[in-house]
Amino acid sequence: MNHPILDQIRDLRAELAPGDAAPALVTALADGTAPCSALAELAAQQHRIIASNRRGLLLLATRSADLPVSAWFATLAEGESAALRTLPGLAAACGLDPDELTARPPLPGCQAYPAYLAYLAWLALNGEPAAAAAALVANFAARGKCTDFHLGPGQRKRERPASYALVA
Question: At a CB cut-off of 8 Å and minimum separation 6, what does 134 contact?
């Protein structure tokens, strides 16, 4: 059965779909060649991204408090909160001082995607909750394909496997 909203989400997902090649860092993590310094930098950059996403999702949950979608936004925000709680452990396991986690400058290559997601902040402030929900659902497939990886056997053999266990 076709539904206009489901058709639109399908079309958006197709438009946002990433290519077939995995990003270089994902490949390096999977094959065990990524240095701990790369994971430390990833943790620092993700801290900025996740905190911003969390704020936007909490605002959406508040703005839609009388609607069923409010609980969905709140659940997504809790997922971001859980991710924020893991970052200090990942950073420490990679040799990054806890203060450095939030003090590192943003790297343009790492922050290009969240700059695009400033749209989430805009939606949180100005958009209709249903439009924000549709945009997030459409984006999940593309974002998931870019970030969905597992740590292969090569990574488990590294000299500091504890740092990788936090992201597995």
Answer: 5, 8, 9, 12
